[in-house]
Each structure stands twice: as structure tokens, then as C-alpha cells.
Amino acid sequence: MEKKEYATVRERICAQEDVFLSPFACKSAMSKGRKVEEPRCDFRTDFQRDRDRIIYSNSFKRLKNKTQVFFAPEGDHYITRLTHTLDVSQIGRSIARSLKLNEDLAEAIALGHDLGHTPFGHVGERVLAKLASDGFYHNQQSVRVVECIEKGGRGLNLTAEVLDGILQHKSSGKPSTLEGQAVSLADRIAYINHDIEDAIRAGILKEEDLPQNAVALLGNATKTRINTAISDIYATSYNQPFVRMSDKMMSAINELRAFMFERVYELANKSIQERSERMLTQMFAYFMGHVEKLPQSYLRLLERDGKERVICDYLSGMTDRYAISVFENLFIPSTFSLGGIVT
After folding, report:
1. Are 167 and 72 in contact (CB under 8 A)?
2. Cα separation of 86 and 230, whole Å?
3. Rounded-to-integer distance, Cα 165 and Cα 179, Å
4. How far is Cα 244 from Cα 228, in angstroms, rounded to an integer?
């Protein structure tokens, strides 16, 4: 058989996708493209380029200092927003691989899905949602980050499929690609199981506290539960035009999720609710009255998007530590020296 030569590595990858990927996969050559057309890369598909752009973005780097569940925990092994994102990426790729979907697309969606998350976890999101008259949703903000804020306002110019997967990744969303559906499930699998690990590490839970019906079906260890969930998705979705779990597995996952909200999330949120709400509320009010104090990169958005939205852009982009630092600089008087006397 004659070996075909390709003009570029990208063309070879696209040809391999035609052979090996499911007919239900979103193949790289099928992409709807970018809002601003660009010359193609010889070595990477568009989805691979999207992945790289997200990894090298400032918003992605800041995820390492944003709360997932536990704020400023003592210990190096608690999940942060960055490690959660990497978990989702790994699980999403595993699902995509098993179903012969496009791993590169799944990975890009997973890496970008939480770029718009606030400091202080979901507490921060709830505070900004109350402060902004048109609300605040981290999935919408993630899209805004990659379209309007990154690269000095030029954005990352990602493909339509990656933008859709980021926007629709919440459980209430409806991703247009199977890769987006895989990431949405991966997000739930990741945060429930690794949040259980953190709660046990923090002494809030013991493994035997978990609902036993769910444990009997999913398993009594994190790696077992994740493997069980992926195996169920494979058995339910292989060669199908959808990605989902069986009803009994989804019921077990939802039971674990409800348990975590009752026993862990509300407790963790209460521990930082008052402080984070005070900081974000006071900073929001300050910048509403002193909008000129915003960094220059945000001021350019004012005329188009208005004060509330741009202030939310600035506050949601902060890491936990930076938010505390800005709050202290604005509202807590610093000591100063006058004639040798510290005042």
C-alpha cells in the first residue's frame, strides 16, 4: 500500500482523525473556526492551538491561587482551582479516548472551563451575582475572559467549539459537541470525588460517613469511584451520539453531590462567607465610586460594557491573596514613620 505524504503535520493529524475517531466526534477539520480568521499552523490543529493558548494565558496561571472549596488550608495537598482544572482535563481526556472522541478538543474545553471563576470559590461567585444588576455566572465570565480580557483585550480568539464547551460546561448546559458533554461530566466527577478527599483530609468527614448506597455502587475510594464512573459512561455511550451516564450511576453521583452540599460545602462556605463578602462588597462599592482607580487594561472596556461589568471583570480575575492585598491597601491604614515615631 502506497504511503501518502502530507504537506503539513496538521494535515496528517486530520487524516488520522478521519480514520480513528468516532463518526460522532468533532474532528479538527470540521471546526466552525474562529471569529477572526488566522493562518493555519503547520504542526498543530486548531484545537491543539486553543489548548496551548489557554495554558499560557495569565488567567490560567492565576488558578493556582484561587480557592476550590477550602480557603487558605494548612497543607500542600488540598485542591485549588488549578488542580481541579487539571483533574477535569485528565478525566475528560480519559472519557474522550474511551469513546474515540477528539481528546484535544476535550482538553482545551477542560483547561478553559473555570478561567472566569472568582476568588474565594463559589462564595465569591454568589457575592458578585448579588452585586451586579445583571448577575454573574462563572461560565459566562470564562468566555468573557478568553474573548475580551486576555492579551490586553484582544482575547485568545478560540474556536467556536471550545467557546461552546466552556460556556455550556455546567450541569444545566447543553454542549453542542460530545467532547463538551464529556467535559461537563468530568467536571462533576472531579469536584465531587476530590472534594471528598479534601473534606476527609480536613477532618470534616470520614469515609464511612458517605451515603452507603452510593458507595456500594461507585466504590469506597476516589480512584475506584472515578474509574467506575468512566466505565459506566463508556458502557452507556460508546458508538452513541451522546455522552452520558446510566440512570443508576447518575443517581449515585447526585446522591454524593447532595451529601457534599449538606455536610461540606455549606460548612466550608460559612467559614469564609462573612470575610469574603465584606471584602468583595466594599471593593465593588469603592470602584463604583472611583472607577478611574481600575487598572488601565480594564478602563478601555468601560464605554462598551459599563462600570458594573468591568468591576466584576477586575474582581473576579483576582486570586485570593491579591484580593486580600487590594482590600488591605484600600481600607486598612498602614503604619508610617514621622520624626522617628511610628504612628
Report:
1. no
2. 16
3. 8
4. 13
Written as nine digits, the cell of 105 is: 478538543
The predicted-structure confidence for 176-201, as pLDDT tens digits, reads as follows: 999 999 999 999 999 998 888 888 88
Contact between 165 and 31 under an 8 Å Cβ cutoff? The reply is no
Distance of CA 204 to the CA centre of its chain: 25
DSSP string, 19-58: HHS-TTS--GGG---BSS--PPPSSS-HHHHHHHHHHTSH
Element (H, E) at 341: strand 341-342
Residues 115-157 have pLDDT tens digits of 999 998 888 999 999 999 999 999 999 999 999 999 989 999 9
Distance, in Å, from the CA atom of 88 to the CA atom of 187, rounded to the nearest integer, reads: 5
Closest CA to 69 of 160, 194, 157: 194
Task: Dump pLDDT digits (tens) for 217-240.
Answer: 999 889 999 999 999 999 999 999
10 Å Cβ neighbour count for 89? 23
* DSSP assigned state of 80: B
Residue type, 111: L
Residues 6+ apart with CB under 8 A from 85: 60, 63, 110, 111, 113, 114
- Side-chain-facing half-sphere of 12: CA atoms under 13 Å: 10
- The alpha-helical segments, DSSP class H, found in the chain are 9-20, 46-55, 58-62, 81-98, 103-112, 121-131, 138-144, 160-167, 178-201, 212-218, 222-237, 247-260, 266-289, 296-299, 302-305, 307-316, 320-331
Residue with cell 470525588: 193
Structure letter (DSSP) for residue 264: I
Residue with C-alpha cell 488566522?
A: 38
Read off the amino acid at residue 247: D
Dist. CA 121–CA 80, nearest whole Å: 9
Joined grid coordinates for residue 167: 460556556
Q: How far is CA 306 from the centre of its chain?
A: 25
* CB burial of residue 315 (10 Å; 0-12, 13-18, 19+): buried
